[in-house]
Design a protein that fits this description.
It is a single chain. The chain is an alpha+beta fold. The protein has helices spanning 49-60, 72-84, 88-100, 112-133, 150-161, 165-178, 181-188, 194-201, 203-212, 216-237, and strands at 8-15, 24-31, 34-35, 45-46, 106-107, 140-141. A hairpin with a 2-residue loop joins strand 2 (24-31) and strand 3.
């Protein structure tokens, strides 16, 4: 799509409880005075001025053509409005299922240095989940699914259900990229930064790369994952 506007501005509006932004004030992005709408024609109104300024900067940075791929914060905001807010409970349920098969709970049996590496990096995160969230997850060896205690899954569900649509959007992006709800929640709650979240989620892959060398496919996958989690962290920081 060609750029069809000259000026990008921000307008403050009042919102109600039904809005994805929550109660209170929200901020719209205006293109030549006209409100930006999402792909399903909902008005784009974000819950903080810093996020509005960052989204507006993405629109203002477009040159002759509008390139959605170069606007990650706008895409996350659209996701919050179009896909998360209308079905927030269902999305929360789907995210909690990651906790039932969380990456951090499935450990290698060998070699010994990988076993130790997983324990060194993943045990502290599981301890944090148990202590801070009340989610004491069971650890197993291998990849055969293990049933997690209902109390632990319930604690994860409470942590997820307390998030608004925007924070839930960031959690969904980070959890899906990392394959771990514990890592996603650690990012949302500031226990991990983006780079530490990537490192924790890619522990096995990094170990294999150090042993056998890197290939282009794995590097591309790592860069994509880094981008997704970093964008989620930036989105959170602007709320």
């Amino acid at each position: 799509m060609k750029r069809f506007y000259r000026d990008v501005t921000i307008a403050s509006v009042a919102v109600d409880d039904a809005d994805a932004s929550g109660a209170g004030e929200a901020f719209q992005i205006l293109l030549d005075g006209r409100r930006v709408k999402s792909p399903v024609a909902r008005e784009l109104a974000v819950p903080s001025r810093p996020l509005a300024e960052a989204v507006a900067a993405e629109w203002d940075a477009q040159s002759e053509k509008i390139l959605p791929a170069s606007m990650p914060l706008t895409q996350l905001a659209f996701t919050a409005i179009d896909r998360i807010a209308p079905q927030q409970a269902e999305v929360a349920d789907r995210i909690v299922r990651y906790g039932e098969t969380d990456l951090l709970c499935y450990r290698a049996t060998a070699p010994a240095d990988l076993v130790q590496l997983q324990a060194d990096h993943w045990d502290p995160l599981l301890a944090w989940a148990a202590d801070d969230l009340g989610a004491a997850l069971v650890v197993t060896e291998g990849i055969v699914p293990v049933d997690q205690p209902k109390a632990a899954v319930g604690a994860l569900a409470r942590a997820v259900s307390g998030l608004d649509a925007y924070r839930l959007t960031a959690l969904a992006a980070a959890t899906q990229a990392a394959g771990s709800l514990v890592i996603g929640l650690a990012l949302v709650q500031g226990r991990l930064d983006a780079m530490a979240a990537v490192a924790a989620s890619q522990l096995d892959e990094s170990y294999q790369s150090e042993k056998w060398g890197e290939d282009k496919e794995s590097l591309d996958r790592l860069r994509a994952l880094q981008a997704e989690i970093t964008q989620a962290e930036t989105f959170l920081s602007l709320l």
